[in-house]
Amino acid sequence: MLYSKLFGKTKKSSKQYDSVNATLLTKSGFIDQVMAGTYTYLPLGLKVLNKIEQIIREEMDTIGHEILMPALTPIVNWQQTGRFETVDVLMKTTPANIFAKAKNDTEYVLNPTHEEVVTPLAQKFILSYKDFPFALYQIQNKFRNEPRVKSGLLRGREFRMKDLYSFHTSEKDLKEYYEKSKEVYMRVFNRLGIGKDTVIVMASGGSFTDDFSHEFQTICDTGEDTVFFVKSKNIYYNKEVTPSKAPKVEYKDEKILPRKDVRGEGIIGVEELAEFLKIPVEKTTKTLLFETDDNRVIAAAVRGGYDINEDKLRKVVKCKALKLASEETVKKVTRAEVGYAGILDLPKSIEVYLDESVGNRTNFETGSNKTHYHSINVNFGKDLPLPKKFYDIKVAKEGDLYPETNEVYKVMRASEVGNIFPLYTKFTEAFNYKFIDRDGKEKPIYMGCYGIGPSRIMGIIVEKYHDDKGIVWPSTVAPFQVHLLGLDMKDESIKFKVYQVYKELIKKNIEVLFDDRENVTAGEKFSDADLIGIPVRLVVSKRTEEKIEYKKRNKNKPELLSLNELLTKLKIKS
Ligand code: ATP
Ligand code: MG
Question: Which in 229, 385, 408, 568 has the greatest CB count within 10 A?
């Protein structure tokens, strides 16, 4: 391709975005921001995206069949699974809906994921045990009303996703396929050049199961996720499910003191409270009241400095859903204004769940359940009974220990490039999709879903592969393999030679971007080549005489080669 004809060239000055990938991809002419979280892929960018998707496609073809489902779906499919109410990022197409409702009494949504389309689709075609298992996938645009889009391609409102769905006649078969998909996924990430930094992480399996799902997280400082690593076991947890034990707090020679209720009007946050009471934050206690879906009111407490993990709490409490108690409930239960709830003297009807970080302390603070009051010097066995059991209901944080081995976690930032999820019968049940077994009976169908984010991956590759001059594409996803620069092209003989090299490369099926511009300085061409980041740079100029200068983007030293030597070298590499 001739660079002079390319739509979307490098920009001399370009906006600094909140991430390296957005800044570099915009400056070098790969993408253009339409609005926050929404991008156009320019010719160079689309080439990279297509290469990423082609690698994914080749690997997915070994375990599934490609289809293409629509982005737009009738609302009723989402109502059928109950997710119309629960998926907060669901894009409702309000103006189109007003029109569609008036005309056809229907409404639409833009799909953030496709279980609601693929399950009824499968149901139309495959019912007999003979046709199981099977898997369908697509690579397509997804829409999510993300509350905060950021980091360029890493979190968009419209983005690319490969989503695969597998269907099985037994849980065992689902599990086998699920394990196989992990291998296929790692092959994809290896081919994309991010394999060595990508780890399999245990994550929440959703509210319908105690099982984990698995995320493929690429270790990367720009990532939004926090991964906790247990070295001795070689396992990784997403922060949201990390089992956590708080480091012990010990204060030397502390004597048990008598409980005291201190007036502290309007002092509510633990930091502010610790300062006011002149005690360390670890001595404060954060107590929250929750209402469960089965109409219980429960109290949960963690040591100051921690937050309650609602997912962990829900599992301990054994309910399907819980939410923070209303102001009215808090007032009724604690007989105090909101902000003074504590674990002392609560009504007997309230179940109390204490995190293990609350124990192991002497002379600690807790809300007094009395408006404006906090109690200090509280001790188990004296001011309140030692509970039969402490739980792990907190959000893990750096410094925490893995409870089984007591080792301190290594904590890393990461970005989720893929996610696999055992769905069991959640969606097949919602659509009443069953198969007919050998014995003629209807039986449940087990499902799994498997996502990869090609556009996010494109961003992550740039985050991982760049230097102060620009992008350094891995050759498997580079828009071109070779960037040919013609310098001194006003000299007819050089111009002739560089075009000859260009034609020869094309003849040999080598993907080449030829910077054929005649009114641009050598310096500009070199810096554009570094910015765009194609793996091999070739130069034909007065200085190279009969030869061609060859330099890899990630190496400093150029070599002078004859055309034949060059072709052999590129062939070997490709
Ligand atoms: P996250 O936790 O990052 O919001 P998710 O778990 O909601 O992601 P999935 O539904 O598992 O995402 O989607 C499959 C893949 O799609 C993710 O692993 C990720 O690579 C990609 N992805 C998800 N949301 C976005 C987004 N807003 N922008 C770009 N890529 C995304
Ligand atoms: Mg996910």
Answer: 229
Cα separation, 95 vs 154, whole angstroms? 29
- Testing ligand 1's pocket by substitution, the residue of 114, 189, 199, 416 carrying the most ligand atoms inside 8 A of its CB is 416
Is the torsion defined by CA of 462, 467, 470, 473 positive or negative? negative
Q: Are residues 60 and 158 in the same domain?
A: yes
273, 156: one domain: no
The reply to whether 26 and 159 lie within a common domain is: yes
- Taking the model in full, what pTM does it have? 0.93
Residue among 33, 52, 456 whose CB has most ligand 1 atoms within 8 A, to mutate: 456
Q: What is the pLDDT along the chain (574 residues), one digit of tens a residue?
A: 999 999 999 998 888 999 999 999 999 999 999 999 999 999 999 999 999 999 999 999 999 999 999 999 999 999 999 999 989 999 988 888 888 888 888 899 999 999 999 999 999 999 999 999 999 999 999 999 999 999 999 999 999 999 999 999 999 999 999 999 999 999 999 999 999 999 999 999 887 777 899 999 999 999 999 999 999 999 999 999 999 999 988 887 789 999 999 999 988 889 999 999 999 999 999 999 999 999 999 999 999 999 999 999 999 999 989 999 999 999 999 999 999 999 998 999 999 999 999 998 999 999 999 999 999 999 999 999 999 999 999 999 999 999 999 999 999 999 999 999 999 999 999 999 999 999 999 999 999 999 999 999 999 999 999 999 999 999 999 999 999 999 999 999 999 999 999 999 999 999 999 999 999 999 999 999 999 999 999 999 999 999 999 999 999 999 999 999 999 999 865 4
Say how far apart CA 213 and CA 243 lie, in whole Å: 15
Atom in ligand 1 nearest the alpha carbon of residue 144: 27
| Residue ranges making up the domain that contains 537 | 482-569
Q: How far apart are CA 295 and CA 298, in angstroms?
A: 10
Angle at which helices 20-27 and 454-464 cross, to 10°: 90
- Indicate whether 194 and 302 sit together in one domain: no
32 and 167 belong to one structural domain: yes
97 assigned to some structural domain: no
Q: Where are the alpha helices (DSSP H) in 240-361?
A: 270-277, 310-317, 327-334
Quick one: 214 and 278 in the same domain? no
Sole residue written with tokens 């105090």: 336
Q: How far apart are CA 171 and CA 309, in angstroms?
A: 29
Residue 397 lies inside a defined structural domain of this protein? no
Task: Take atom 28 of ligand 1 and give the residue whose Cα is closest.
Answer: 155
403 in any annotated domain: no
Question: CATH no. for residue 539?
Answer: 3.40.50.800
Shared domain for 138 and 226, answered yes or no, is yes
Residue 48 lies in a domain: yes
Specify the residue with its C-alpha closest to ligand 1, atom 26. 155
The single-letter code of the amino acid at 434 is: K
